[in-house]
What we know:
Elements: H1 4-7, H2 29-47, E1 52-53, E2 56-57, E3 59-62, E4 67-70, E5 73-75, H3 80-101, H4 104-108, H5 111-127, H6 130-138, H7 143-168, H8 174-183, H9 188-208, H10 210-216, H11 219-222, E6 233-236, H12 238-241, H13 266-269, H14 290-302, E7 309-312, H15 314-319, H16 323-328, H17 333-354, E8 359-365, E9 372-373, E10 378-389, E11 395-402, E12 408-410, E13 413-416, E14 420-431, E15 438-448, E16 451-464
Antiparallel strand pairs: 1-2, 3-4, 4-5, 6-7, 8-10, 9-10, 10-14, 11-13, 11-15, 12-14, 15-16
Helix pairs in contact: 2-5, 3-17, 5-7, 5-9, 7-9
Amino acid sequence: MINKAESEESVIHMYLPRAEIYPREVAGRYTTLRWLCVFLTQLVFYGLPWMQWNGRQAVLFDLVARKFYIFGIVLWPQDFIYLAALLIIAAYSLFLFTAIAGRVWCGFACPQTVYTEIFMWIERKIEGPRSARMRLARQPWNAEKITRKSTKHALWALLALWTGLTFVSYFTPAHTLMREVGQFSLGPWEWFWILFYSFATYGNAGWMREQVCKYMCPYARFQSAMFDKDTLIITYDSERGEQRGPLGKKDSIAERKLGDCIDCSMCVQVCPTGIDIRNGLQYECIGCGACVDACNSVMDKVGMEPGLVRFSTDHAMVEHLDPQQVRKRVFRPRVLLYTSLLLLIVLAFFITLSLRTPLKMDVIRDRGAMGREIEDGKIENVYRLQIMNTAETAHRYKIRVSGLKDVKVSPDELVMEGTGSRAFPVSVRVEHEHARSGSNRIMFELTAEDDERLQVREKAVFLVPR
C-alpha cells in the first residue's frame, strides 16, 4: 500500500520568492571609497553633455549625421575600428582587474551598484534607518506610510527621468533636447529611449537591486573562470573567528574560550545582496567591502584586532601570508600576460589615432562617360572625387594628377568645410600621343594649401579609346 506521505504531491520551486533585504548603513574605508566612485562616475555622466568644445557639445554621438564627437576627435562610420579597439581595451581591463582584485568593478563602479547606492540613500533619508524601514514595511497602510512611500518613489522617478534625459542627450545635443522637452516637441524615438532608460533605472535600482546581480548579470556566473588562489576576494578568517559566540558585557576578551566572531550578524545586515560571508565566497558577493567595514567597526568597539573579515587571497589565508607577501604574488603569469596585452593594445590604439589623417578621398570614374576625344584632340575622362574632411577646420585643397605626361585636371582647387563630406566632379585631359590606347594608371593627390602634411593619394584608371 502507498502511505499518505508518499501519495502527496511535492512542489519544487524553480524560483524562490524574494526575501526583502534592508541593508544597514555602514561607515568605513570601503564605504567612503564606494561613495567617491559614485560621485566621480555621476559627475562624468551628468556633466559631459553640458561641456562645450569648439562651439559644440564635447561628447556627442550624432547618429543622424553619422558622426561621433569626442572632444577634439570626430569619428565617422569608416572609423568603426576604433570603437572595436575600445571594446577590446575594456574587456582586457575587466580581465586584468578581476584577476587582481576580484569583483572590484561590481562593488565600486558598476552602474547597477552606483544607482542602487543612490536610491538606497534616498530611501534612508525618507524612511529612516534599517529598523525603521522594516517597521514601516510591516505596519498597515496609513497616512504616514503612504506619505513616506509616495515621497520616496516620486524622488526615485525624478532621478530616473533625469538619468534617461541625460542618456539621450549623448545622442541629441543637451540644449536642443531640453528645449524640445519644454516645448513637448520630442520625436518618437527620443521619447521611447528617455522612458525606456528611465524605467530601467527605476526598476533595476529601486525594485530589483540585488536580483539584477544574482540572476540577470552574467558576470557573476563566469567570474570564477578569472579567479585564482591569489585573487583578492572578501574572506572570513574562520581559523580566528570560530567557534562563534556572543560577547557578554562582563566577559573578558583575554579569558574568552571562543573565537573572535561574536556572532553579531552585522556583516549580514549591511550586505546589499543579503549573504553571510562567513559561509565562504559566494557568487552573489559583489566585493563592495561593506561587511569588512562593519566587522572592523565591531572589532574596534569590543577591543579586538580588525581584519576578521577582510580583502585577502586563498593562499594568504591557508599559508598565513603577510600583506607584503600577498603583494608579491600579484605579479604572476596571468596578470603579466593581461597587462602586456592591454598595454600593447592601448599603445597601438593611441599611435594609430594620433597618425590618423583627417582627410579621406575616393575616386570614382564616371561610367556613363567613357574616355572620349574632345575638340582640341585631347582625351578626356570624367571622375567624381568623394572627399571627407573629418577635422573641424575648413581647408582649401590643391588637386594634382600624376602618371601621364602633361596631364591636366579641372578644376584643380576646391574648398572643403570642416566635418563635411561632398562629391566634386573633375575632368582629366591628356594629349592623345601621351597615353596609350586602353587603360592607363594615374594617381590623384589632394593637398591642403595651408598644411602640406594634410595630404591623401588615391589610384585611378584613365581610359583612351582604341
